[in-house]
Design a protein that fits this description.
- By secondary structure, this protein is an alpha/beta fold.
- The chain folds into two domains: 216 residues, 3-Layer(aba) Sandwich (Glycerol-3-phosphate (1)-acyltransferase); 300 residues, Aminopeptidase.
- The protein is built from 27 helices and 19 strands.
- The strands form four sheets. Strands 10-11-12-13-15-16-19-18 form an eight-stranded mixed sheet, sandwiched between helices. The chain has a seven-stranded mixed sheet with strand order 1-9-8-2-5-3-4, with helices on both faces.
- A hairpin with a 2-residue loop joins strand 6 and strand 7.
- Helix 20 packs across helix 26, helix 20 runs parallel beside helix 27 and helix 21 packs antiparallel against helix 24.
- The longest helix has 29 residues.
- It is elongated.
- 39% of the residues are buried.
Length: 632
Amino acid sequence: MRSPRSPHEVHFSNPGRNRFERACFAAVRPTLEWVIGMNGLNRLYVDEVLKTDPELPPGRRFLMGFGCGYLVSDEEIERIPKEGPLVVVANHPFGGLDAMILDDLISRVRPDVRFLANGILANVPAIKDRFFNVDPFGGKGAPSRNARSIRRAMDWIRDGHILGVFPAGEVSSIAWNRFTPTDGPWNPIIAKMIKQTGATVLPVFFEGSNSPRFHAAGLLSPYLRTLLLGRELLKVRGRRVRVAIGSPLPVQQLDRFSDPADLTSFLRMRTFVLRSRLEREEPIRSSRLRRILRGDPASSRRQPVSMEPVPTVPVDPPDKLAAEILSLPPEQVLLRRGDQRVIFAEADQIPRGLREIGRLREISFRAAGEGTGKACDLDRFDDWYLHLIHWNDATGEIVGAYRLGPTDRILERQGVDGLYTRTLFHFDTQLIEELGPSLEMGRSFIRPEYQRRSEPLMLLWKGIGRFASLHPRYRKLFGPVSISADYHATSTRLLLSFLKASQSVSGLSRLVRPRKPVRNVKPRDWDPSTIGSIRNLEDVDELVREIERNERAVPVLVRQYLKLGGVFLGFNVDPDFSDVVDGLVLVDLLKMSRRLLRFYFGEEGAVRFVDHHAEADKGLQQAAAASAESAS
C-alpha cells in the first residue's frame, strides 16, 4: 500500500481543462513522476533535507540532504562584496545543484540573496521564497508574469540586496554542431537590469556537466531535457563541484557598454574565462599531453626541459668587470642618473661584460618561464650586435641590458641572415628596405632583484632614445617580444587575438611569415562577439590576471611597445627558447607623441631627431619635384 503523501512533497499540478483530461492525467501522473525522478527527489527531500537545521540557508540544507558539496578557496569567497546592490551572474551546467551551491556560497557572506529562476525550482516549499519566478518556455500568461517578476527583482536590487541569475535561462546543453556542453545564448534582459539598477556584477563559474544521457535527450527536445533534471539531481550524492569566483565589476567599469548585447557578451566572457583558472590547478591530462606532443605552443603545461646550472656569481672578478665597463669612451655613455649609467658597447670591447650578460640573461629568463636551458645565454649574433647596458656604479653590477642591431651595418657586413629575427620569421631584404635604417631590439632583461622597480627598464629605454637621437637615421625599432609558455593557453590566445585584431599592420605583415606558426585554436565557449567585447589592453590585462590568479599580467614589454605605438607583424613559436610565443613588433619613433619623445630622448635629442627627419623629408620632396620637372 502506498504511503500517504507528505505536505512538503512536490508534484505536478494537473493541467487538465476538463474532468476527462484531469482524470487521464491523474492516472498517468505517478508513472510520469517515477520516470523523471520526482518520487526519488521527494523521498530525499522529506527524509534528508527537511531533517537538517531549519536555521541554515536553504542551499546548505539541500547540499547536506543530498550529500554533495563544492570546492572554493577562502580567498575567492572574500571577493563577494559585503554590502551594496549586487548581481551574481553564473553559468548553468546542472539546472538545480548550481543554484543550491550559489545560495550557500553567497549566504556565507550575507543572507540577503534571492534568485531569478524558472518555476520548477520555485515550486519547492523550502526555497520558494528565495525565487522570483519566470517561465522559460513562454506558457499562457507567461509574458506578464515574467515582467512582474523582473520588476520585483529590480526593486530587490535597488534596495541594496543580491540577485543571483543564470542568464542562459536554461541548463547548459550540447547541439548537433557542438558536442561540448555549454550555456546557450545569454538573455540581454539581465544586462538591462544591471544597467538600470547600477549594481555591481560578480561572475561565478561552476565546473562540470550533467550526464551524456541527459544531453542526448536534449538533442531531441528541450522539454525532455528539462523533465530529466530530476534524474540528474538524484546522481549528485558524493559530488564535489569546483567553483571559481571572479573579480567584482563595479558599475563604473560597465558604463562604457551602451548596448545590452555588448555588455552581455562581456559578462559571459568574464564568467567563462574563469574555467581556465580552474584548469591551471589540474594535473596534465592525456588529451593535453597529446597537444603538447603535437607541438601546441600555447598549451597550459610544458614538458620539462633539461637545464644546465647557471653560475650564481659572476664568472669574472667583479673589479675586472667594473674596470672594463668604466674604461669605455665617454661618448659611449648615453646617460647618467646618480650612481646609475647607461652605456653601449661592441662585443669585443666587453668580453667580461658579455659573459656576465649571458649569465644574467639566462637567470632572468628562467625566472619568467623562458630561457635557453644553457648555463650562458649567448649566441653568434652577440658578436656583431651592439649591447646597451644599465650599470650600477654603487654596487658594481649590471642591472639590465638590451641587444641592438643596426640593420644597415648588419646587412653590409653579414647580409640579411645576420639578423636574429630571421631565425624566427621568414622575410627578405624587401622588408628591411621598406623599414629603412632601423634598430633590431631583443634579448632584453632586468636582473630579478631589480624587477619590482620601474627605474631600470625606464633607464634602458631612455638609453635607447639617447642612442636614436645621436644616430637619428634609425627611425624604426623592431624585434621579438616574448609571451612565456608558463601562461595558460587561454591567456596566450586571448592576448594574441587582441593583438592580431587591433594592433597589426597588414601592409607589412604580408612580407613576414613565422617559421613555426602559433596554432589558431579558439578557446571553448567563445564566439565572435567575445573578442569584440574586449575594448582595450586594460580589459586584456584584467582577464589575464583573472586566469593567472594575479600571478601574471600582460607582459611588461608588450605594454611598453604598445605605449610607444607599436604594432605586430606576426607571431612565432621559439622551440629553442622554452617554446615562448614571439610577436614581431614594430615601433615608428617619429609617430610617438612629442611628450614621449622628450621623455625618452631628452629635450635636445627630441628636437635633433625630429629636425633630422624633417630635413630628410624636405630633401625627398625636392628630389621628387626635380625628377618630375626633368621628366616633363
